[in-house]
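Feature request, filed as a ticket because there's no other form

It would be nice if the structure record came with a short human-readable summary line next to the tokens. Right now we just get the raw output. Example of a typical job, pasted below so the devs can see what we mean:
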Amino acid sequence: MPRGRYSLHDPHDHTPLAEEHFHCAPGPSGWRYVSQLTAPSGDHLGSVDLALDELGRPIRLELHAASWQVRGAALDGVTWVRTDPTGTHATEGNVQAHSFTGSSPAFLVATARLLRLTPSAAATRVRLVAFTDPVLAPRTLDQSWALVRSEAHPTDNGPLTVDEYQVTALDTGEQHSVHLAGDVVLAAPGIELEDLESPPSVFD
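Raw output as currently delivered:
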């Protein structure tokens, strides 16, 4: 069960935004990721709880940020309920999309699991609903994902396979790289892996 800490920063000016303490593991139904976020000041910012089925679809998502809450799942596309800090107003949303995304590294692993790309495959288009900080506002976006290369690197615990993806935002054409090892993000814009207590899980 990988357990560790990511630092999140603004990808443009590198302003520190949060630290995300996480643990994740494959399970009988698929994969689960749980994390707590803290501000640079040490204040609690929110949490992420994401569970995927064996095909990489989100069977349960629960996000907390700035007293806002989102619960979602893959249902008729993706469906979610967003609740305001007072708990008196809840709005439901539904979009014909493949999955969810957001600032947490969990969503990069989830999208890669969903697409299951191979280095020889063409780039694949995916529609995602992003929940943007700090109030978890939903926004639908389209991306293109391609697996550029998959390389094995020797480690003390045996070879570690690192996958490099090229992700393109289809509305702006902006491209960036995402490096994954199993269910851990090694590098991505705005994300740095600061600490890892055990090796990444290897998916079948």
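Something like this underneath would help us a lot:
Residues 106-115 form the longest helix (10 residues).
The chain has a mean pLDDT of 94.
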